[in-house]
Design goal:
The structure holds three protein chains of three kinds. By secondary structure, chain A is mostly helical. Helices cover 76% and strands 2% of the residues of chain A. Chain A has one domain: ABC transporter involved in vitamin B12 uptake, BtuC (Orthogonal Bundle), CATH 1.10.3470. The longest helix of chain A is centred in the last third of the chain and has 27 residues. Classes of the chains: A mainly alpha, B alpha/beta, C mainly alpha.
Chain lengths: 328, 237, 290
């Protein structure tokens, strides 16, 4: 009786949430919708990093690089080749997948802090690389590339608000985000997911069981990069502008923070990661104008104390406690 | 004569999982006591409980002092040396550095040098490899190193966790022979956890049998060795 | 040829800087097996403290040693209060905390001491006989100080029981407890020492690049590259690695890649080193049996 009614509530709840999500952009101002778009973009980026770091145990402090490459791929395709915005996404995924797999090779030799360090070096080097005069013709150098926001393909009004480019992008981003989350969920819940976790927790035993470690680890790097690269492309489209200084090392740090805040090896946690990345710096700014970074740092440390398992870890603990109370 | 070690109603848990239930045992100075039992019976946990590495309740009286509630470092400073399962050697340090660390809490350089010479005399292979990285030693050599390191403490009580584990029979025989001489010549009391019951019973004076965290039976090792029904039921031979 | 030599010497001079940062990193790693991402910012903060003391009239060496002592104690306190509860937490959580510390120290440097660039005195006077065409008196002096610190560290780790205990505690905390080492305090000590070394590095660097809150950001990465190159557990290697990185940065920057991509040099160095020699050029290969 419990299982069936649980299922029923789950579907009803999900349907309600879906309706709320669809109606939401028309209840908010354009700027808030824009912010929500970025939340979803960051969520996908964090999801990508989580596949690598949470599920597979490979630290990366350099995922901002993949985000940047995805964004630039989309921008160059749109600006120089007139490719429609939606078509840039798969290309960005593939480009970053290849790139990530290549990076996965030297990463095989590194573990823990060393990998974090090497990837951090990548993150720091990226803005410099993007400013390089040699490729300025493509990248637009220091000034970057300015894009135009995609226009909605039809007219629509709800609650007296028009379907603006930001709102249209909201639906597009929502669709892509759902697809990516579904893809990740499908990928990770089967044998692949278990193999990844086995490699993370007991690499030697995993090898002894026949899992081809190098292949798995490099492909995981690639897949993770692909996800984050796609997010970058989406982000570039949403902001309609890419420049080297939008992709500093800070971004890579924020992504990692997003993973830990949301909860390692947790797919839904990525959403909280996205929310954290988008909104907490603003909150820190409001608390202290003179040293917002210090507040951010304090928040980070505090979070590690109070919720070492991230938001999802905290949620699970709460759920377990509630369950124990009702059953006990 | 008061016992060197008296343990009463010892309970121990890993987090929320309780592993030992009201375990009682004692040890007289100069004696060797064996703790036997199947996998998961709680033997290793008992030794860890003595060193206060796990959460314990109950009473552990050692040399007149209560150990429960002390920090591991404090227990060690009371001359209790623990040779953990898996040897616990500092694999990145040299053999000599491992021995130096064994005497760390004593703080006496002269005695440390003396003791190191004695270890080298007892285990010549260690002297040969004194500057070698401990991680490159064979299993048997690491066990000798682990025991030597424990002895550098000049312990009153030596805790040994499965010293025979993973070693060839010849090496094991050698190590047990050395343990007997340590007990007889230096008067070191020992608490020995072993899965190899026959070996342990040959060495020990007294034996306790643990079964799922409780003491199932105990007695002088001679008695247990010769009791066929006990041997068949509990010790598998 | 003249130009090339100049690049090499200037690279060596920079290498002193990178080497000293690398040393602090190696120090922390040796005692805690963690890489402290906040090292640079803590060093900058210490340097600001020294500057403030000197602004209030304290003579150079007085301020120098007082700063060392304050940095030591401060880092010890941080380890005990902030990091100790997380000792058992997974490595990633510790990384986040280090990042948090990085942000806090960087922001506090700007907040307490404001963002204007300050000049920092060097104790090594220009009228010294060592002031030559290729190396300034300060650069010579820095090398000397660095080597002194290095020697002290080497002796400490190799010959004292506390140094040995620290190494043991970092490698195998469980076994360390079983020989009576107070592992928690060893970690705190490691932090204190690393902070003191970082302060020395900061005070040697500031006269050259001028003091401001972001002084160490770029240098930290080069310091990491140097530490890795030299072998993360080898203090000598760290210093040597510093020289190598300094020279390579200049030479490659002037003749091969162009100065705009200098940070990429660090990246490539790190990746190549770790791919070919994961333990660095001079690191010890620790063998572990399965």
């Amino acid at each position: 009786m419990n299982q069936a009614s649980d299922r029923k509530w789950f579907w009803i709840g999900s349907a309600l949430v879906l309706v709320a999500l669809l109606v939401l952009p028309f209840l908010l101002k354009n700027y808030r919708v824009f912010q929500l778009n970025l939340v979803m973009v960051y969520a996908v980026a964090v999801l990508g990093l989580n596949i690598l770091t949470g599920f597979n145990g490979q630290f990366s402090l350099g995922h901002g690089a993949f985000y940047a490459f995805g964004a630039y791929t989309a921008a160059i395709l749109m600006d120089k080749f007139g490719v429609p915005y939606w078509a840039t996404l798969p290309v960005a995924f593939v480009v970053c997948f290849v790139f990530g797999t290549l990076i996965g090779f030297p990463a095989l030799r590194l573990a823990g802090h060393f990998l974090a360090l090497a990837t951090f070096a990548l993150a720091v080097a990226v803005p410099q690389l993007l400013k390089y005069k040699g490729i300025e013709a493509w990248t637009g150098g220091v000034q970057g590339i300015v894009l135009s926001k995609p226009q909605p393909p039809f007219e629509f009004r709800l609650f007296d608000q028009a379907l603006s480019p930001d709102r249209w992008l909201y639906f597009f981003t929502l669709f892509v985000t759902l697809v990516m989350f579904l893809l990740a969920w499908n990928l990770l819940r089967g044998r692949v997911g278990r193999a990844l976790v086995a490699i993370r927790d007991h690499p030697i035993a995993a090898t002894a069981m026949g899992i081809n470690l190098p292949v798995f680890k490099t492909l995981t790097f690639g897949t993770s990069a692909g996800f984050t690269g796609l997010a970058g492309a989406l982000g570039g489209i949403a902001v309609a502008y890419v420049s080297p200084d939008s992709f500093t090392a800070n971004l890579s740090i924020f992504l990692l923070v997003g993973v830990v805040v949301g909860g390692l090896a947790s797919i839904p946690g990525a959403i909280f990661g996205g929310l954290f990345i988008q909104f907490v710096p603003n909150i820190a700014d409001e608390i202290s104008k003179s040293a917002p970074a210090a507040i951010y740092g304090v928040l980070l440390i505090g979070l590690m104390y109070l919720m070492p398992g991230g938001v999802m870890g905290g949620v699970h603990r709460l759920w377990a406690r509630l369950r124990a109370r009702t059953e006990g | 004569m008061p016992k060197l070690l008296e343990v009463n109603k010892l309970c121990a848990s890993y987090g929320a999982t309780q592993v030992l239930y009201d375990v009682d045992f004692d040890l007289e100075a100069g004696h060797i006591t064996a703790i036997l039992g199947a996998n998961g019976a709680g033997k290793t946990t008992t030794l860890r409980a003595l060193c206060q590495v796990v959460k314990t309740s109950g009473s552990i009286m050692f040399d007149g002092e209560q150990l429960v509630g002390k920090s591991t470092e404090a227990v060690v400073r009371m001359a209790v040396a623990h040779v953990p399962d898996g040897r616990g050697t500092f694999t990145g340090l040299s053999v000599e550095e491992n021995l130096r660390l064994g005497a760390y809490s004593r703080g006496n350089k002269a005695e440390m040098a003396e003791d190191m010479e004695r270890m080298f005399k007892r285990f010549p292979i260690l002297k040969q490899r004194r500057h070698q990285q401990a991680g490159t030693l064979s299993g048997g050599e690491q066990q000798m190193l682990a025991i030597s390191r424990a002895l550098m403490l000049r312990p009153k009580l030596l805790l040994l966790d499965e010293p025979s584990f993973g070693l060839a029979p010849l090496i094991v025989a050698e190590i047990f022979r050395i343990m007997r001489s340590i007990n007889q010549e230096d008067g070191v009391s020992m608490l020995l956890v072993e899965q190899n019951a026959s070996l342990a019973l040959d060495l020990a004076d007294h034996a306790y049998l643990l079964e799922t965290g409780r003491v199932a039976l105990h007695g002088p090792s001679e008695v247990i060795k010769n009791d066929e029904s006990v041997r068949r039921a509990y010790l598998g031979y | 040829m003249e130009g090339f030599l100049h690049q090499i010497f200037s690279g060596l001079a920079n290498g002193v800087i990178y080497g000293s940062v690398a040393l602090a990193l190696v120090m922390i790693y040796q005692s805690t097996h963690h890489i402290n991402f906040a090292q640079g910012e803590m060093a900058t903060f210490s340097t600001f403290v020294a500057w403030t003391l000197m602004q209030h009239g304290m003579p150079y060496w007085g301020a120098f040693f007082l700063t060392l002592a304050l940095s030591f104690v401060g880092a010890l306190v941080i380890q005990r209060v902030v990091l100790r509860p997380l000792e058992k937490a997974p490595a990633l959580n510790n990384v986040i905390v280090f990042i948090g510390l990085l942000l806090i120290f960087n922001a506090c440097s700007g907040w307490f001491f404001d963002h204007t660039i300050k000049s920092f005195d060097s104790p090594f006077n220009d009228s010294w006989m060592f002031d030559t065409k290729y190396f300034s008196a300060h650069q010579f002096g820095s090398v000397f100080v660095l080597l002194l610190v290095l020697l002290a560290l080497y002796l400490f780790f190799r010959f004292t029981s506390v140094g040995l205990a620290m190494r043991g505690a970092a490698q195998n905390p469980d076994s360390a407890r079983l020989v009576g080492i107070r592992v928690s305090w060893m970690l705190a000590l490691g932090w204190g020492l690393a902070a003191a070394i970082g302060a020395v590095a900061g005070m040697m660097i500031a006269p050259i690049v001028f003091l401001d809150p972001n002084m160490m950001l770029g240098i930290l990465l080069y310091g990491f590259a140097a530490a890795l190159l030299g072998g993360i557990d080898n203090p000598w290697g760290a210093v040597l690695g510093g020289f190598i990185v300094g020279v390579l940065e200049n030479v490659l920057g002037a003749y091969v890649i162009g100065t705009e991509l200098k940070l990429t040099v660090a990246l490539v160095l790190i990746v190549v080193t770790l791919t070919l020699k994961p333990n660095g050029l001079f690191g010890k290969h620790v063998v572990t049996r399965v």
